[in-house]
Every structure is written in structure tokens, then in C-alpha cells.
Amino acid sequence: MLRKGIAQLLELEPDLQLIAEIGDARDALKVILQHEPDLILLDLNMPGQDGLHTLNLLRNAGVYARIIIFTVSDDQSDIHRAIHNGADGYLLKDIDPLELLASIKQCVKGEQVISPEIAQVVHHALTQRLPENMHPALNELTEREREVLRLVASGCSNKAIGQQLLIAEGTVKVHVKRVLAKLHLRSRVEAAIFALHHNKEF
Q: What would be an example GO MF term here (predicted)?
């Protein structure tokens, strides 16, 4: 019922397009790989396999869409595992529907979205995830990839990056994927934090 309600809520938003709402993790993987959505709202408790395993499979398959974990769990181990597996946000299901919509829109634009109650835990998980010896990999980035990384760090969406650099949105997605792969990062949030940590180096 909750999934259906969220789907109906999203369908009422003119600037959002709902691609699918799926209850089984295995079916979700197929649809995501086929349609390449910009954002995925992922439950931790799903039939077929749990959401954390699904998240890990998606990132390992090269899916760099924004992924928000949407769950009732505020358990620290779940939060840490979600962030370590590449989640871009973590929202609890008691969130107000209008706040959920706002969070989805913020996440699409490149912002990190988390429920206030767990903000400190998420911040700790993010800082723990960042490798300390990553900066030599910056040498592998092309100048265009560095430009894209700077704009990701500033919170720009793929569309906004494309407009600033005068390139197609699809081309931006390719650059973002390459940046994440070269820096061994799993989400745009990690890329943004990495860029802020090493901003003097590029």
C-alpha cells in the first residue's frame, strides 16, 4: 500500500516521471538496467533479496543513478552498510509525504538527503567510507572529468552540468560514471565529499 501511495504521489508531480514501481528485487534489477532511471527509491526489506544486497548489485553493475534508501530501520549497522554500498540518501518511512517529494527532487539535483534523526550516523558513515590514499587517482582524470567533478561537488544535476559545459546530458552521465570508476567511489555524494577534501589538488 505504501509503495502504491508513493507511486500515485510521484505521478502527480509534473517535473517527475515515474518509470516503474516494483515489489520484487530481482524484477527491479532488470527494469533499472533496462531504463537507467535518474533516481531509485529502494526499500531495505524486499521480496527476493534484501535492499542492501540489491544496492550492492546495482553499484557493482555500474548503475550510477541516485539511490535513496527508504526504510523503517534506524539501526546504525544498516545505515553504515547502506552508505558503504553506495547509497546517496537514507530516509525513514515516517517522513511527511511533502518532505519526501522535496527530498527526491533535492537528490535528483545532486544533494545528499537524510532524515534528521540519523544525520550524525550518516555523516560518520560517509567519512569512514572515504579512502585516505585516493588523491593519486586524480592524475587519471581528464580535464573534462575534473570539470564535471567540480560541478558535481557544487551540487549541480547532470542537466545543469550539461548546460554549463555545453554538452549533452547523456555525455555528462558518461563522464560521471568514468569519474566514479577512476576514483573508486560508489556515489555522487562520495564524489562530492572527495572533491571537497582534495579541492586544492585539482
A: DNA binding
